[in-house]
What does this fold into?
Amino acid sequence: MKIFTGWRAALRIARRDAMRAKGRSALVVAMIAIPVLGVTALDVTYRSVELTPAEQLMTQMGSADALFSDPGTGPTEQSANGDNYSPVSDIPLPEDAPPLDLRTAFPQGARGISIQTVPASVTTRYGVADAEIFEFRTSDRMARGKLDLVDGAFPKGAGEMVATEPFLKLSGLHIGSPITLRGPEQKYTITGTVEQPENLKARALYADPGAVIAPWKATAAQDKKVLPPNAGPLTWLVKGKDGQGVSWPDVMAANKKGAVVVSRQVVLDPPPDSEVPFARKLGDNTTRSSSTELSAALVTVVSMAVLEIVLLAGPAFAVGARRSRRQLGLVGTCGGDRRHVRAVVLSGGLVLGGAGAVVGVVAGLVLTMVFRPLIENQAGQRFGSLALYPKELLAIAAIGLVTGLLAAFVPAVVASRQSVLESLTGRRGVRRSSRVLPIVGVCVLALGVVIAVLGGTSGSSGQVAAGSVIAELGLLGCIPVIVGLLGRLGRRFPLSPRMALRDAARNRGRTAPAVAAVMAAVAGSVAIATYVSSSAAGSDFDRTPMLSENSVVVSSLDAKGTEQLPLARAAVERNMTPTGRPAGITRVWAGSDCNVYYEEENGCGTLELVKPTGKGHSCPLNTKGAKELAERMSGEEHRSMMHSPECVDERFTLDTFSSGGSNIVVGDASLLKTYVKLDDPAAAKALDAGTPVLLNRAYAKDGQVTIKATHRYSDKDKKNRALHPGPARTTTDRLKVYVADAEYAGTPGLRMIMPAKSAQRIGLHTSVYGSVYNVSRPPTDAETQRTDAAIQQAGGDVYIQVGSGSDEQRQSTMLLVLTLFAGVVTLGAAAITTGLSKADAEADLTTLSAVGAPPRVRRTLSGFQCLVVALTGVLLGTAAGLVPAVALRLIDLHKAVEEMRLRPMESAYTPIVLPWATLGLLAVVVPLLAGLLAAVFTRSRLTLSRRVG
It folds into this structure.
């Protein structure tokens, strides 16, 4: 009982001390509560986004009892949940077999509503856009949960539609806007906004059954110029008779008629496997995702939160212990020993840790409810419900409580070792820094780097993680010495920065943990940002673009489209951002008119650019000894060879300009400058003189190329058939060419530009294909819609292709989030340290004011104190973050090289790219911002008071 009596007294003292120092207590509670808040919000969000089976069924079939579909296989057997099925008979249905009328498979007395989709082109505020239209009776009660009304009203007739919010945002329309279905030119009015709870980003339109597809078919039957709709299969939502649902016998009866059924009753209460023929036959192989990776991520997040709390809250308890040293000394004079002093400081951690845990959990729940719509929009789906798991919330609160105790542990030990005389007089004593700790820290840092690098080269991710943690711990051991060296840097600085550097060095127990907290946050962000940037660079290398970046191609495939090209060019020039003059493109082929007979296999003949064999022409990675060669190559050597002229075409190449697979087009010098980006007067002069320009030198031998043409003429092409009777003939021609530099060998979709006179000389057919533009940036949705509208208004037989670069927007967004996270932690840690510095050095600031220092010194001192912590932590964190990033890229390199040696044409390029924008923001902008904010929010004047002690 004496032990509990002593702890009761200690808790009472800690509670009163916390109430007396409200500012410091609130700071500690906030530091503990914020990570607890984050983990609570993460737990509740994850549990709420992960839908239960009942909630998944609601999004799949609304309030209906079952979803019926026709797989087109005849009588089937299915799993209980309807995910897997197989036909009863191995004999497929005849191709001309009519589709199953699913209504015949309904249980007796059941009611259903149909769902059918059709892709279409519709008018928008800006022009024309593609959309998915659903024929679905959205006003029926069965649709609730699958589709919900947000604003307006459901359709009440054939001339009305509802739309999702993303479609309205894309199209610039709103409730009440007219909308026209292009093709049959059917007009509708948007009456409301709806959402799909499982897909909030869907861009779709909804109309009642019979409002779109049937009139479209009728118009197509009357007007041969209108193409019939390409409607998808029918599915049905079914409600059982008198609320009886759809039972397993009902499902098996529907299977015999050829339907597959997802029944709410069966999924939530499945029959035993003995009653499921499919399970007896094949087994119900449902896939279950493993949560191991998620659990590891959650453990990592919680561990980082605990580490940062301990590093930041520890100095706060240390400052509190020093501020209460006289009170702790009185405990000693009253007969208390070291364990009682420790109990008082630990009780402070218990009180404040408990308060922070409760505040954090409650605030996490409240903020999750407040920001639920925002979270749902980011996740792209609605919560099924706000899922709360009491055991998990109690565990999170316990983490906050334990963290408070851990943060107070070291200050409690230090306070207990302080003599009673020092406590009563207020002297801190003289303590030397450990000389062993920095030596051990350097050794541990080197060991961690070695382990991480060895793990990267051997492909062990666990070894990389262990090495990275060890290296960071070693760097933590070096921080006190690094902070101590800062004091020596202040000799040549003015008063405020000199005092800030010396204060940081003198109070290492306060400064070092704050620097370490900043380092921990920045290290994680830099590691992920570096890995993301490097992976994106590798993906860009492997990407095969359709067109050159920031290029727009306007093209036609028939004579009617060729007539519309001037209007299409005007639309592009008016609505997009072209730079310079366009380049004209002419297609070339060897047989019948490809514009008409393209549906026949090789109907327009074939045209081939023959590649010579031998060194300088054949790709070594695609020859007999490729594997042996790959064994001897490094990743960089392999990368160079993959992009060499000899190998660049051995990978998947795209026929951008519809040249029958030859990647040859007819053009002039403007195409070189506009699309190829080749500014070579000699090449332009060669084209003007009638000499083709070859972009890939691997096809040239002795300055000439070989073109093999198979002239094949369709019987439908009566004009050319009369001129060229008989079977197909093959011709081979040698042409002198101008060979471009090797860097142009990978130009997307283009290998040779041929003058028109050269094509005519060797008997090839040509026709105007379109134009190529350079644009200053990729066109927006509105610009694309305006351009499409102008083209469709002209007849719609012209097509537009837009070349884009890498997915920089997604990468930039991720890097921005990481930078903001690290920046917020840096600002918070620096602000906390500055506040502790002011509380700890109040007597020094009073003396400074007393000897006549200007009021602004107090502001600038706070600003520089914040700057020192932020800048030191960011620089050390950047160095620490590069260790795991580089090691993980070494793992990727190890795997890529192994894959390359098995398949030599696979890319082994794994670059390490530093995110300089992120590093610049963290290393320059964030520390300066921290110092500026600290200076702005610090009071410049101080009320003088009598010094105590």
The longest strand covers residues 111-123. Residues 283-301 have pLDDT under 50 and may be disordered. The chain is about 50% helix and 15% strand.
